[in-house]
Specification:
363 residues; alpha+beta; Aminopeptidase; eight-stranded mixed sheet; 14% strand
């Protein structure tokens, strides 16, 4: 599972100066690069491109291997020059995105590699990448946007499972799952170690939530962990809960179209790594329809049973399961609500409630 604050073992941080002969000047981001006149577009584009060569912890190995990675990046950048320059400018202009880029330098070239759908061209990848961050900046509450992308982690709250243990809902940028989407919801244990994840990207021109990953625990004990997790969720499968959260996110923002990646178009399918989950089977179980291009179109809403449809001896467990699902969805919806403005008349009352001793002191 991903841990956004820990780069992969063996990755080294380098800047442009590491690729040049000793004594060569490598411009860095600073006042001279930031204060470009409005007409100096070419100079600004070059500055952004040079800046994107710094702090590349994702380029690993000896200097010559990192040099090859840098050269490939530059050549690919020239292939989609104007579009890539707009993306770099978007990152440079947003302090949150700039902080995210320093934490996850792969963001700068996510679209140059396998990403979400193996059938996409790199221009398609970059288009959807830009659309997602345009949506995130415009619609996520500012505090949540900063926690997720600048800090790398947002805890949305905890709830109590059947056995009395605490489970936590978290939102993270999927750094080590970056090829599968740009926003990650995770069901975690009390220590906020991930148990289940769903990763998606938002296309905002034709509002669509695109699911690229639905992943549970790995390792030899994975099945036992999933069984235990299902038991303490009152019999609800964790992947069903994660899909419910994706639907809750979409409903909150009025997104009516949800699509999910199929097995053949999954970006990791083409890299020789096996997929441990059968996505096709799960999407079809959810009444998803194959629509071509590697996608399944999911129904507008999930099928929800009524208590009357459940055998009487299972209704109590059904009600507990549904109550738990609604509780977890509400944790997500609470986090997505914009902060309430404090009016001038309410401010003194808020201060008195925060400092009652001062309010009664007469001073």
């Amino acid at each position: 599972m991903n841990n956004p604050n820990r780069p992969p073992a063996g990755v080294l941080g380098i800047g442009l100066e590491a690729l040049l002969p000793a004594g060569t000047y490598a411009p860095r981001r600073g006042p001279l690069l930031d204060r470009q006149p409005s007409g100096a577009r070419d100079a600004g584009a070059l500055a952004h491109l040079l800046d994107s060569l710094h702090h590349r912890k994702d380029w690993s190995g000896p200097w010559y291997r990192r040099s090859v990675s840098a050269l490939k990046y530059l050549v690919r950048s020239l292939g989609i020059g104007a579009q890539h320059q707009r993306f770099l400018a978007l990152i440079a202009a947003d302090s949150v995105m700039h902080a995210y880029r320093l934490r996850d330098p792969r963001l700068l070239e996510r679209h140059m590699h396998r990403y979400v759908n193996a059938h996409w061209h790199r221009r398609d990848r970059l288009t959807y990448l830009q659309q997602h961050y345009r949506f995130a900046k415009a619609h996520l509450p500012p505090g949540l946007y900063e926690l997720v992308y600048a800090m790398g982690h947002a805890s949305l709250g905890s709830f109590t499972a059947k056995d009395g243990s605490l489970l936590t809902l978290c939102m993270r940028p999927p750094i080590h799952m970056g090829c599968e989407g740009e926003l990650c919801l995770q069901l975690c244990d009390a220590n906020e170690d991930p148990l289940y994840s769903i990763v998606f990207t938002i296309a905002d021109e034709k509002p669509t939530l695109m699911i690229g990953c639905l992943q549970g625990p790995g390792g030899e004990n994975a099945r036992d962990l999933v069984r235990e997790l299902t038991r303490i969720l009152h019999g609800m499968r964790p992947k069903q809960l994660m899909l419910s959260l994706a639907y809750a996110f979409a409903r909150h923002y009025g997104i009516e179209r949800l699509v999910a990646i199929g097995n053949d178009a999954h970006p990791l399918r083409r890299s020789g790594r096996p997929l441990f989950a059968d996505y096709d089977a799960f999407w079809e179980e959810q009444r998803g329809q194959r629509i071509g291009g590697g996608w399944y179109a999911l129904p507008a809403s999930l099928t929800q049973k009524a208590a009357a449809d459940v055998p009487s001896h299972h209704r109590a467990a059904f009600r507990r399961r549904e109550a738990l699902r609604r509780e977890v969805e509400q944790l997500l919806l609470n986090a997505l609500q914009p902060p309430m403005p404090v009016s001038a008349s309410a401010a003194p009352r808020a201060m008195r409630s925060m400092f009652p001793l001062m309010a009664g002191s007469g001073r």
